[in-house]
Design brief:
The protein is an alpha+beta fold. It is 22% helix and 32% strand. It is built from 3 helices and 8 strands; from the N terminus they run αβββββββααβ. A hairpin with a 7-residue loop joins strand 4 (82-87) and strand 5 (95-100). The termini are far apart. The protein binds zinc ion.
């Protein structure tokens, strides 16, 4: 495993769409492990592959209830609405208010290539939405309705 370098702020790779993963190979599993290690090293709760410069639809999340490794995740259901306070490892020092669904269900493949479903409420729903946004090149400043800190970049 290895810690990867993060991409920040105006790095154009953060604005690109990530490509689906055809097959969950050892190389993909290694990458997911590196992403998890990088996420923990940076004290993050979630990381998308584009944040370490790789345009693949891969996400790691750990909101304190265990590590999730998601391949080709997509939101298949969303309900309700919540006001969130959100930050991003790629936009250090910036914190803003966003509005996200209260509850989302995500379909993905796990590191064995099996189809999995996760339903998250509250902070986990926020995290799913934030990380899946990254896969489509959508970043925190696109979602923020009001900055709480670091607004003027
Ligand atoms: Zn982020």
């Amino acid at each position: 495993m290895a810690i990867r370098s993060l991409r920040y702020n105006d790095d154009e790779i953060l604005r690109k769409r990530c490509r689906p993963v055809d097959e969950v190979t050892d190389r993909i599993r290694d990458l997911l492990n590196d992403m998890a290690e990088t996420m923990y090293a940076e004290n993050g709760a979630g990381l998308a592959a584009c944040q370490v410069g790789i345009l693949k639809r891969l996400v790691t999340i750990d909101m304190g209830d265990g590590l999730l490794k998601l391949v080709n995740p997509e939101i298949v259901e969303a309900h309700g609405e919540q006001a969130c306070v959100e930050a991003c490892l790629s936009f250090p020092g910036r914190v803003g208010q966003t509005v996200r669904p209260q509850c989302v269900t995500v379909r993905a493949r796990n590191e064995k290539g099996e189809e999995v479903f996760y339903t998250g409420e509250g902070n986990l729903a926020k995290c799913f939405c934030h990380e899946l946004d990254h896969l489509d090149g959508i970043v925190l400043p696109d979602r923020v309705t009001a900055w709480l800190s670091g607004g003027k970049a």
